[in-house]
């Protein structure tokens, strides 16, 4: 216990309502309350008039010391009308204030003086960010200016496949073969080793690659010539369909054409076809260029660099299959629709997916284009991966309407 002449000030906070300070006198067994009823519009139960009456005397409560302090009035859940202010004091007591009365406190809400101030949201936690990485070096440090470019075609392709397209230009010279060589006009002749400039592959020449698929020109020459199954569509049969529909074929686009065999076959028939191709572990683009067709280095997730309505034919090879996300594939089909002219053809050559997904997922995506079905053939995929995953092939020839 403190000395008897010492006063203690206590603040009470009840249900978010903070009351004004109470001054307790510990010498007598009475508690003198100052300015609480005046602030909150309350009065003693034995009185029915203003808080201080006309005589200006303060009411006192006989309470045990430090027990049962006055509890402020609780707020109801429903909004209530503001309590009218007390009538003004007479002129003889207007300037009579209690000696220890604190200055009046202003509430944040003028309509309800007892409403607590609004609760502010907690301050957001400060995130600890990792230290910034070092910026990439300038391009002139990666390769000397006005000199040979480094052999980084595999790096450029990996950036393109990850969405970094188009790549920035550089001020360096691309490497060329040491000796000029005359290229054959026949796109199915043997690929000359004198045009080889790559160094990142295991095989350092085309003769080393002849045993692999898509590099043996004797095997490639027989493709797209005959129909061995219902899934095949020969070039001759396709041109007959286009001729009967009075739709000339002059310009084409081959998506995922590998070494450019389809473009080479169409070149012999005086039809220009541009091939989008990626190397993916083998020099497919170099082989297509050596055969005299245009290899277009463009990813499928970006807008094709072809003008609107410029192509009479768009063929999708093995590069377009179920490994592409459905949303990306839908955007790809709409971009192919942009490239095709009215009356042009969309050729899906052996598109493979799971059998349950053909009618449920990919069929509706293709049907959104509203194209005419000229050919729609489905067959089982008989390789080990197809048998394991219950996959099927789809070969479809669709014609774009002239007016949509």
UniProtKB/TrEMBL annotation:
Q: Where is the Methyltransferase type domain?
A: 253-347
The molecular function terms of the Gene Ontology recorded here are: S-adenosylmethionine-dependent methyltransferase activity
Region listing for Disordered, in residue ranges: 1-139
The alphabetical list of record keywords is:
Methyltransferase, Transferase
Q: Name one GO biological process term.
A: methylation
Compositionally biased, Low complexity: which spans? Answer: 45-65
Q: Which InterPro entries match?
A: Methyltransf_11, Prob_Methyltransferase, SAM-dependent_MTases_sf
Name of this protein: S-adenosyl-L-methionine-dependent methyltransferases superfamily protein
């Amino acid at each position: 216990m403190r000395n008897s002449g010492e006063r203690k000030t206590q603040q009470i906070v009840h249900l978010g309502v903070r009351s004004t300070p109470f001054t307790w006198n510990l010498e007598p067994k009475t508690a003198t309350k100052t300015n609480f009823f005046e602030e909150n519009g309350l009065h003693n139960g034995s009185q029915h008039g203003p808080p201080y009456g006309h005589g200006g005397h303060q009411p006192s409560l006989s309470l045990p010391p430090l027990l049962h302090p006055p509890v402020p009035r609780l707020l109801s859940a429903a909004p209530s009308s503001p309590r009218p202010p007390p009538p003004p004091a007479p002129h003889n007591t207007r300037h009579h204030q209690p000696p220890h009365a604190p200055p009046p406190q202003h509430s944040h809400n003028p309509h309800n003086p007892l409403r607590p101030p609004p609760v502010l949201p907690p301050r957001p936690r400060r995130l600890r960010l990792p230290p910034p990485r070092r910026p990439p070096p300038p391009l002139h440090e990666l390769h000397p200016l006005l000199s040979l470019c480094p052999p980084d075609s595999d790096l450029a392709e990996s950036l393109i496949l990850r969405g970094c397209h188009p790549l920035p230009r550089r001020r360096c010279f691309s490497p060329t073969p040491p000796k000029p060589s005359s290229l054959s006009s026949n796109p199915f002749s043997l690929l000359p080793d004198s045009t080889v400039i790559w160094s990142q592959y295991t095989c350092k020449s085309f003769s080393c690659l002849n045993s692999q698929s898509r590099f043996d020109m004797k095997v490639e020459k027989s493709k797209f010539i005959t129909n061995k199954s219902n899934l095949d569509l020969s070039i001759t049969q396709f041109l007959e369909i286009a001729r009967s529909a009075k739709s000339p074929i002059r310009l084409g686009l081959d998506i995922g054409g590998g070494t450019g065999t389809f473009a080479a076959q169409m070149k012999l028939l005086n039809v220009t076809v541009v091939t989008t191709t990626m190397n993916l572990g083998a020099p497919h683009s170099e082989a297509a260029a050596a055969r005299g067709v245009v290899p277009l280095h463009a990813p499928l997730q970006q807008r094709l660099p072809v003008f609107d309505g410029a192509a009479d034919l768009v063929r999708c090879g093995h590069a377009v299959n179920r490994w592409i996300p459905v949303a990306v594939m839908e955007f790809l089909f709409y971009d192919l629709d942009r490239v095709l002219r009215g009356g042009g053809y969309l050729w899906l050559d052996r598109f493979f997916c799971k059998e349950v997904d053909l009618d449920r997922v990919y069929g509706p995506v293709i049907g959104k284009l509203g194209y005419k079905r000229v050919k729609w053939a489905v067959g089982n995929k008989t390789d080990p991966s197809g048998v394991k995953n219950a996959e099927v092939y789809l070969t479809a020839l669709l014609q774009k309407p002239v007016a949509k």
